[in-house]
Specification:
By secondary structure, the chain is an alpha/beta fold. The protein has 3 domains: 47 residues, no CATH class; 257 residues, Aspartate Aminotransferase, domain 2 (3-Layer(aba) Sandwich), CATH 3.40.640; 103 residues, Aspartate Aminotransferase, domain 1 (Alpha-Beta Complex). Strands 1-7-6-5-4-2-3 form a 7-stranded mixed β-sheet, sandwiched between helices. The chain has a 4-stranded antiparallel β-sheet with strand order 10-11-13-12. The chain has a two-stranded antiparallel ribbon with strand order 8-9. A hairpin with a 6-residue loop joins β8 and β9. α2 runs antiparallel to α8, α3 packs parallel to α8 and α9 packs across α10. The longest helix has 37 residues. 38% of the residues are buried. The C terminus is likely disordered.
């Protein structure tokens, strides 16, 4: 009997798991988008549908916009898979994970030159945003205690930040009713550097935030100059205002690449420091850390004691149950790399950033805002007078066609009339990938320069000889 004359055998429903992929129910139809399906599906079917849908996302390795880690070694991925079930809050059930968390922030206290790392106090968090919330709350509560002791009102706290500050500080001020006093950046003062600081602080100032690695440009804010300005203000007015260092990126770069830069607990005015383990800590998201100089910097009434998990469990995070696996990944990297390894990885990223910024800065179309010599992040603007036919948003769209995600956005208040593009060089973005990106960038600039006329936002026009 030939194949064409064979009778079609109808399989029983139980054989659906033997059906070829993409012909099973769910794979050959559409799952409901906003309601639960009526019935179950096979594990392979559910996996395939989700797997295929996220293929529409961009390639994370080509995402030059994000600071968040996108690559780890195979052994780290194995460890991650083995520890998915760890709950960081349950220190009685997972005491070794809790001990490892303590080891990690003690290592950071030492790395950041705490006077006595054993007397410091810290915690892991979901990310730097939560860490910054905790830092701000500690500053506010310390200020409130001091004011109440002096029988003064506590209803109008403020905090001083740069206009280039990350949005998490805006959230902090909104959620916890603290006035944000923004010091605008300018061409003369592109970062918060202590200039005119006396105009912004008063007896209601709970602290000043210094950024080690401004999101927009990657530049360090000079914490030592901010501290010196506050020293002068205290000498003149008696106001003793602490500093929190938002080191989301730079606190895991400066100790290795700029060890002589004084920005950390070597400055007595620095009360606390945060960083993102999932940025230049090199861990997958999401993990943050915060360390206070000593226990006096973290008011005891911010610490909660939970008894129902098998013992007295002090906690001072905003979240309760959260993954412990990332904490173990951080410990893995601390053991795997050590000081020399972190220095090597961060130096390689900086070398790639300096290579790219030099090549991009040499192009007539662009003028650099930074070069990646602080954290491996740099930004550029379109050179004045280069073209009226396109802007950096058009270039961003062209680069996306090749898979590269490179954002274009205005600088913060004070320089908001200037649009820049920024590249974040992370571990895994190799010199070879950088060369491929540079070739695509030059090709796309040549394409845009050849346009016949002005290009409306969001639209493409034909190029000469296209």
């Amino acid at each position: 009997m030939t194949r064409s004359h064979r009778s079609v055998r109808h399989e029983p429903e139980t054989s659906v798991e033997l059906n070829p992929l993409f012909s099973r129910p769910g794979e050959s139809t559409i799952f409901p988008r906003f309601t639960l399906p009526d019935g179950e599906s096979l594990p392979g079917t559910a996996y395939q549908v989700v797997h295929d849908e996220v293929m529409l996302d961009g390639n994370s390795r080509l995402n030059l916009a994000t600071f968040v880690g996108t690559w780890m070694e195979r052994e780290a991925s194995q460890l991650y898979a083995e520890t998915f079930d760890k709950n960081m809050i349950d220190k009685d059930e997972y005491p070794q994970t809790a001990l490892i968390e303590t080891r990690c922030w003690r290592m950071l206290a030492d790395l950041w030159n705490a006077p006595d790392p054993a007397a410091a106090i810290g915690t892991s968090t979901i990310g730097s945003s939560e860490a910054c919330m905790l830092a701000g709350l500690a500053l506010k509560r310390r200020w409130q205690h001091s004011r109440r002791a002096a029988k003064k009102p506590t209803d109008t706290p403020n905090i001083v930040v740069s206009s280039a500050v990350q949005v998490c500080w805006e959230k902090f001020c909104n959620y916890w009713e603290v006035e944000a006093r923004y010091v605008p950046v300018s061409a003369e003062h592109p970062t918060l550097d202590g200039h005119d600081l006396e105009r912004y602080v008063d007896e209601n100032t709970i602290g000043v935030v210094a950024i080690m690695g401004v999101t927009y440009t990657g530049a360090y804010e000079p914490v030592d100059l901010i501290s010196a300005a506050l020293d002068r203000i205290q000498a003149d007015t008696g106001l003793d205002i602490p500093i929190h260092v938002d080191g989301a990126s730079g606190a895991m770069v400066a100790p290795f690449l700029q060890p002589d830069l004084v920005w950390d607990f070597r400055l007595p005015r620095v009360a606390s420091i945060n960083t993102s383990g999932h940025k230049y800590g090199l861990v997958y998201p999401g993990l943050g850390w915060i360390v206070w100089r000593d226990q006096q910097a973290l008011p005891e009434d911010l610490v909660f004691h939970v008894s129902y998990l098998g013992g007295d469990m002090p906690t001072f995070a905003l979240n309760f149950s959260r993954p412990g696996a990332q904490v173990l990944l951080q410990y893995y990297l601390f053991l795997r790399l050590g000081f020399a390894g972190y220095r090597s990885v961060q130096a390689s990223s900086r070398d790639v950033a300096l290579y790219l910024s030099h090549e991009i800065g040499a192009m007539d179309a662009f003028t650099l805002w930074s070069d990646g010599s602080d954290i491996p992040v740099f930004a550029w603007q379109l050179t004045d007078g280069h073209t009226r036919n396109w802007n950096l948003h058009h270039l961003s769209e062209r680069l996306r066609m090749n898979g590269w995600l490179v954002p274009a956005y205005p600088l913060p208040d004070g320089l908001s009339d200037i649009t820049v593009q920024r590249i974040v060089v992370r571990n895994g973005f190799t010199r070879d990938l950088a060369a491929s990106f540079l070739a695509d960038l030059k090709k796309d600039v040549a394409y845009l320069d050849a346009l016949t006329g002005p290009m409306p936002d969001g639209q493409q026009k034909e190029a000469f000889h296209h």
